[in-house]
């Protein structure tokens, strides 16, 4: 009886499910065979309604929510500030001045050549009339206004310069406490360049003679009366009464002459046209004793008979054709014609480019392993220049890639040069002098200055890419300046066809110690990577042209022949701007 009731219940349930399924599937089954008419108008109205609602929500939502935020009314409204219109130019040249800061800088360097300096003024070198211990921004040295120089050297204690005629000018408290203003001292020698040690000036004449001049009038043997003016340094016959010494190397061959001189604090290197290198003591305060002379066993006790500062040939370099020399405070470096670097002297901070192996002095020249720096790259490295100062050494390298089959497939304008130019540094970096972005205490090997390496630019004249090399590198005691050999232009003038043509010069970057404001940034922060500084006039010319508050960078005028003075109405001369980094002082001067 129970089984029959369960069977009846199952049958009833199945019939109910069939009826429900049949009732629900009727519309879908009819839709398979009968297609309803399309109603596109309804869809369009639906989409329009959706977009309308969304737009209304986006419009009214901020206004509805604004009432819920009590701080909304307290928020200041944004005020738009528009750039002030530039001054209207009365001529094409004035338009160029308004257009480019570098055009103005080059124009001013030709109209008013002279010397700018900044850094330590403790020795009255930058401004003899000022009591400021530091000069934070570039300042003109009034004595050299509208004058051209052959060379300039600056220290915190004294300054020295070679005039356009080859005469020597000295100044600063280290020269004369009573009268630190610039004064002519040695003339008639046709000097070409000078170097400074701790207390003397090494001068090279155009004829190849080398002279050693005291930095202080009090250090002259037989001294000069400090109470007399600078003209007392001259005898009635017109010849110099300054007690200088001729330290030209003896025994030079036929046609051999001195081509370059470099000096540290105690020693000097002398290079001849035959590639020979001589070393000499350049200070009366102390005799070189840290191997910087490159002569093993040489000391005050073992020096040869004769004057203490007589030049001695570095025999260890015999057979090498030396082309460049460099000197730091207590170390030396030379470069031969094949691109090999030899370094010797103090190596306390790794400034020689190799590890000291427990001995912080190298008394004999040792070769720097430059090829190992490119061993994994496959590039062929050739050293092109060297520089040294303080406790650092620098060298530039042309790294050339091997030729490939696809090297000539690209268009000339898109073809990358096979040669790149790199800058390497070694030594102490606690002041940022290495320029690598790090504060390294001691270098175990040279480190690449990436900010000044592997740079390229497009040369419109040649329609090709070219590497940007260093035009010059100046190394002071703790800071450096690099002048770039970038493309420059100085031909834009009143005769140019387009007013949009402007002049621009060589870029210059500074880095390293800034404890005496010698970087020219206006601040006292050291920089461990190259950086630009502002124009020499502090931006006054830019402000006059409507560019007040804008940041512009310093550029140096490249070598050119032009007429000096206002609007080019002065004499004709060939000149360029150069930078000088000394002991805690920096300068820019107009050089011939």
Tell me briefly what this model is:
By secondary structure, the chain is an alpha+beta fold. The chain is built from five helices and 32 strands. Keywords: Membrane, Transmembrane, Transmembrane helix.
How would you describe this structure to a colleague?
It is built from five helices and 32 strands. The protein has 592 residues and is of the alpha+beta class. Strand 19 and strand 20 (392-400) form a beta hairpin. It has a domain at 89-141 and 369-403 and 414-591. This is Mitochondrial protein Fmp25.
Coarse structural class = alpha+beta
- Total strands: the figure is 32
Instruction: Name the average pLDDT.
Output: 86
Percent helix among the residues? Answer: 10-25%
Strand order of the largest sheet: 2-1-32-31-30
Strand content: 25-35%
Q: Enumerate how many helices there are, as a single number.
A: 5
Strand-helix topology:
Blueprint: H1 2-33, H2 40-66, H3 92-99, H4 101-111, E1 115-120, E2 134-140, E3 149-154, E4 159-163, E5 168-171, E6 183-186, E7 191-196, E8 200-205, E9 210-214, E10 245-246, E11 258-263, E12 267-272, E13 277-281, E14 312-313, E15 322-327, E16 331-336, E17 341-346, E18 361-367, E19 380-389, E20 392-400, E21 419-427, E22 447-448, E23 456-459, E24 464-467, E25 470-475, E26 479-484, E27 506-512, E28 527-531, H5 540-544, E29 555-556, E30 560-563, E31 572-581, E32 585-591
Antiparallel strand pairs: 1-2, 1-32, 3-4, 4-5, 5-6, 7-8, 8-9, 9-10, 11-12, 12-13, 13-14, 15-16, 16-17, 17-18, 19-20, 20-21, 21-22, 23-24, 25-26, 26-27, 27-28, 27-29, 30-31, 31-32
């Amino acid at each position: 009886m129970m089984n029959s009731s369960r069977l009846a219940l199952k049958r009833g349930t199945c019939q109910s499910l069939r009826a429900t399924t049949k009732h629900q599937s009727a519309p879908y089954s009819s839709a398979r065979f009968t297609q309803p008419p399309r109603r596109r108008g309804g869809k369009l109205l639906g989409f329009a309604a959706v977009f309308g609602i969304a737009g209304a929500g986006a419009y009214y939502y901020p206004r509805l929510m604004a009432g819920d935020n009590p701080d909304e009314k307290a928020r200041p409204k944004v005020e738009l500030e528009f750039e002030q219109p530039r001054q209207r130019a009365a001529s094409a040249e004035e338009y160029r001045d308004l257009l480019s800061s570098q055009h103005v800088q080059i124009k001013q360097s030709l109209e008013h050549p002279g010397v700018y300096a900044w850094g330590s003024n403790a020795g009255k070198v930058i401004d003899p009339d000022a009591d400021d211990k530091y000069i934070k921004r570039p300042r003109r040295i009034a004595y050299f206004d509208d004058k051209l120089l052959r060379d300039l050297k600056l220290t915190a204690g004294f300054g020295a310069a070679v005039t356009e005629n080859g005469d020597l000018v000295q100044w600063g408290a280290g020269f004369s406490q009573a009268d630190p203003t610039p004064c002519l001292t040695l003339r008639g020698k046709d000097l070409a360049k000078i170097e400074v040690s701790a207390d003397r000036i090494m001068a090279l004449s155009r004829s190849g003679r080398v002279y050693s001049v005291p930095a202080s009038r009090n250090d002259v043997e037989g001294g000069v009366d400090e109470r007399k003016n600078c003209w007392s340094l001259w005898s009635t016959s017109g010849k110099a009464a300054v007690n200088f010494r001729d330290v030209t190397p003896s025994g030079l061959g036929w046609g051999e002459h001195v081509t370059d001189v470099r000096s540290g604090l105690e020693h000097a290197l002398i290079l001849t046209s035959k590639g020979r290198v001589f070393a000499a003591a350049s200070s009366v305060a102390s005799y070189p004793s840290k191997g910087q002379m490159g002569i093993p066993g040489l000391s005050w006790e073992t020096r040869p008979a004769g004057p203490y500062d007589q030049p001695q040939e570095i025999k260890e370099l015999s057979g090498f054709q030396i082309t460049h020399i460099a000197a730091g405070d207590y170390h030396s470096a030379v470069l031969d014609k094949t691109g090999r670097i030899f370094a010797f002297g103090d190596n306390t901070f790794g400034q020689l480019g190799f590890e000291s192996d427990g001995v912080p002095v190298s008394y004999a020249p040792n070769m720097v392993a430059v090829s190992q720096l490119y061993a994994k790259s496959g590039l062929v490295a050739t050293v092109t220049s060297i520089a040294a100062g303080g406790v650092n050494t620098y060298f530039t390298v042309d790294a050339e890639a091997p030729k490939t089959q696809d090297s000539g497939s690209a268009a000339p304008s898109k073809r990358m040069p096979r040669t790149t130019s790199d800058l390497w540094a070694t030594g102490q970096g606690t002041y940022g002098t290495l320029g690598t972005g790090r504060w390294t205490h001691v270098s175990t090997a040279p480190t690449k200055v990436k900010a000044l390496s592997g740079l390229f630019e497009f040369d419109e004249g040649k329609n090709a890419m070219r590497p940007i090399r260093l035009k010059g590198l100046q190394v002071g005691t703790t800071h450096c300046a690099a002048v770039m050999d970038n493309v420059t232009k100085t031909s834009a003038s009143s005769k140019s066809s387009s007013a949009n043509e402007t002049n621009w010069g060589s870029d210059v970057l500074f880095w390293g110690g800034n404890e005496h404001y010698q970087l020219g940034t206006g601040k006292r922060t050291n920089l461990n990577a190259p950086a630009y500084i502002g124009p020499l006039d502090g931006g006054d010319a830019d402000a006059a042209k409507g560019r007040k508050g804008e940041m512009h960078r310093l550029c140096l005028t490249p070598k050119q022949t032009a007429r000096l003075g206002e609007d080019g109405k002065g004499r004709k001369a060939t000149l360029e701007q150069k930078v000088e980094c000394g002991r805690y002082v920096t300068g820019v001067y107009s050089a011939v």
